[in-house]
Design goal:
alpha/beta, Nucleotidyltransferase, domain 5, 6-stranded mixed sheet, about 30% helix, elongated
């Protein structure tokens, strides 16, 4: 150690990290020594321009020092050229790899220069996390090969990465190794290297992509493989920005609407599992192609993927027969998080890209539920939270930071339009809201893509094509409130509505007339449709109440409605039909596709992947299938209980429905109808 070496105090904001730095040292090196992560693809070669900082000058008494302009080196030719290329003058901002310390300094690191940026995702509560993806880019210049030099090109690249970026013990993907020599020479021994770091082992790093010269752009895909719908988000891994979102129907619906029917299809057909596996893999490749095309990229630009889905969907994605999940004891192949090469699964992304699948909790609570946990963080809350991820197979969470329980409920596809006579997914033309006049008993509705209600629409405007989940919940609640169906969900046969007609199957109600639809045919709801909704809502309600009892609470503080249509359902009408237990409606939030949001968070954060592994083992799972009184509870919850003592928070919010329509009122309406 040189005793005459001058050292100066440098403080980095906003982290507040500080330390003494040798005179002449670059700010980038000083930051690294203090654990301040400043982004630098080029590793200090004044090429990428990502390491911008802003010196602050003035008297800082709290640090006992004065930060002056002369305490930082002037811009050299390379830095000046960098700013000229970007048509900017060197001013307040400096490249930390070029600026050297010559005195005490206070340095601000702007958000765009922070390697671990703070990302905030909005939900019922804002969630903040550090942007630290497991895939990063590094630019290096490699010593050219010389005659008589016995060192290989891969070893030369490793040496450069170690010297410039302090990356050691690297391995290399086969396809990257195969292209290494061509790319090095094409880039004149300058190369951009994409490195993947195992989320569970920080020392396990792999070179997965090589690009000649200096390149920018690193992208990932987060995908929620739902039973009915597959949704994907294309994400910029450097900024955390979601570039595009694409969705499509899960092609496996051809082989069965719900999980059990797909398990049965695999059992009954020798090639059933292979067909369903191929269908979903092809769908994922199509999704990647659509998303990258929309962002003016290519599927080969995607270098990392995070997938979530229920346990059956993940088994079929991996080509595993899910037969063990079809009956007790509902055994999983593994509950651990998984990392595979996308190419091994047949997904058409970059050849070296990995696919990360979040861990499962139990037989029917899988990676999608862990996605919800990562997005909504009930494990960090003081309040008792009920989270319902509404889909073909619904997952339920109840608890807080002290104790969190989960369960699965087989709701079926009714809430996503399946098993409903005119059900459809939430697309343009789908009826999403319904209101029934309490006197005329005639409905009005609103469709997706149209702001006005049906009785205000012109002939040329968008017409109804079917009815989606939010519209189905509205419709059943409105039928009940108007007295057209009774507490048991049955049609009242002498209902004096022009839209109701008795049938051999008890009855049906016309939601949209032939002139109001795009097909020229009526859209109706039948007794069987209502029964499907009752089965679905009863499964949810019963599962939630069971977990509440296990947690030792009679009421929850907040309800979060997740899932494909969670953002669109009317929470008042949902509670009116008994979709979830009683709660102050001001504390009921629709949070949308939380499973997909959680996949995005884990795509952007290696720390969150590690946290998911821990939480999957900490959460208590309750198997509803072996609960001795679950079936009795389920049957009791089939009714429509909006006026029950179990729902005090709905008192005064729902118009008092006629007691199956008072007899005198019926006669009056028949008389008026007869006059007409």
């Amino acid at each position: 150690m040189n005793l005459n070496e001058k050292k100066f105090l440098v403080v980095f904001q906003p982290s507040g990290r500080q330390g003494y730095v040798s005179e002449g040292q670059t700010l980038l090196m000083a930051a690294r020594e203090m654990g301040v992560e400043i982004e630098s693809i080029c590793g200090g070669q004044q090429t990428c321009g990502k390491c911008k900082v802003v010196p602050d000058f003035g008297d800082y008494s709290k640090y006992g020092m004065v930060s002056k302009a002369e305490h930082i080196s002037a811009s050299g030719d390379d830095e000046q050229n960098h700013w000229l290329k970007r048509r900017r003058e060197a001013g307040a901002q400096r490249l930390s790899c070029a600026a050297c310390v010559h005195g005490d300094l206070v340095i601000n690191v702007p958000e765009e220069s922070q390697a671990r940026k703070q990302i905030v995702r909005k939900s019922a509560v804002s969630r903040q996390f550090s942007l630290d993806p497991v895939v990063r880019q590094y630019f290096v210049k490699v010593k050219p090969a010389e005659l008589g030099d016995r060192v290989g090109d891969w070893e030369r690249l490793q040496a450069s990465l170690s010297e410039t970026h302090h990356l050691k013990d690297l391995r290399i993907d086969f396809f990257a190794l195969r292209d290494l020599q061509t790319i090095l020479r094409h880039g004149q021994w300058a190369v951009t290297v994409t490195v993947w770091q195992d989320g569970s082992c920080e020392d396990r790093r792999e070179v997965i992509r090589l690009q000649p010269g200096y390149q920018e752009g690193i992208y990932g895909m987060a995908i929620d493989v739902g039973t009915t719908t597959v949704a994907g988000h294309l994400v910029d891994l450097r900024t955390g920005q979601i570039l595009t979102t694409e969705a499509m129907m899960n092609p496996q619906t051809t082989y069965g609407e719900d999980l059990m029917s797909r398990i049965s299809y695999g059992m009954m057909n020798p090639d059933g599992v292979a067909k369903m596996h191929t269908a979903i893999i092809e769908a994922l490749s199509i999704l990647l192609k659509r998303a990258t095309h929309a962002a003016k990229l290519k599927p080969e630009d995607v270098v990392d993927m995070v997938l979530v889905g229920n346990t059956v969907m993940i088994d079929l994605l991996l080509g595993i027969d899910p037969i063990e999940l079809g009956g007790a004891p509902f055994a999983l192949v593994t509950h651990e998080a998984l990392d595979f090469k996308g190419r091994d699964l047949g997904i058409k992304a970059h050849s070296g890209a990995y696919v990360h699948i979040l861990p499962a909790e139990a037989g029917h609570v899988g990676a999608d539920n862990m996605g919800v946990v990562m997005a909504e963080s009930p494990h960090t809350q003081d309040d008792i939270v009920l989270v319902i991820d509404i889909g073909t197979n619904a997952e339920i969470l109840v608890g807080n930071k002290e104790h969190l329980l989960s369960a699965s409920s087989p709701t079926g596809p009714a809430f996503e339009g399946g098993e409903i006579t005119h059900g459809m997914r939430a697309a343009v033309g789908a009826i999403e809201k319904v209101r029934i006049d309490k006197l005329s008993l005639i409905p009005r509705f609103r469709v997706i893509g149209q702001e006005r209600w049906s009785d205000e629409m012109a002939d040329e405007e968008i017409k109804a094509a079917g009815i989606c989940g939010s519209g189905i919940i509205d419709l059943v609640a409105e039928l009940f409130s108007a007295g057209i169906i009774d507490h048991g969900g049955k049609f009242v046969l002498d209902t004096p509505s022009p839209n109701f007609r008795p049938t051999a199957q008890v009855g049906e109600y016309v939601v949209a007339t032939a002139t109001q639809t795009s097909t020229g045919r009526e859209i109706i709801i039948t007794q069987q449709d209502i029964r499907a909704v009752q089965f679905a809502k009863s499964a949810l309600y019963t599962g939630a109440k069971l977990l509440m009892e296990r947690r030792g609470v009679e009421q929850v503080d907040r309800v979060l409605l997740a899932g494909g249509f969670g953002s669109y359902i009317d929470k008042q009408r949902a509670m009116m039909i008994g979709l979830f237990p009683d709660c102050d409606l001001a504390n009921v939030y629709a949070v949308g596709n939380s499973a997909g949001d959680g996949a995005v968070i884990c795509l952007l954060s290696g720390e969150r992947r590690r946290r998911a592994r821990e939480l999957a083992r900490w959460i208590d799972y309750v198997e509803t299938a072996i609960e001795p009184n679950f079936q009795d509870r389920f049957v009791k919850a089939l009714g429509l209980p909006h006026n029950s003592d179990e729902f005090p928070h709905l008192e005064g919010l729902i118009p008092e429905r006629p007691p199956i329509i008072a007899e005198g009122h019926r006669r009056e309406r028949r008389r008026v109808k007869g006059k007409d």
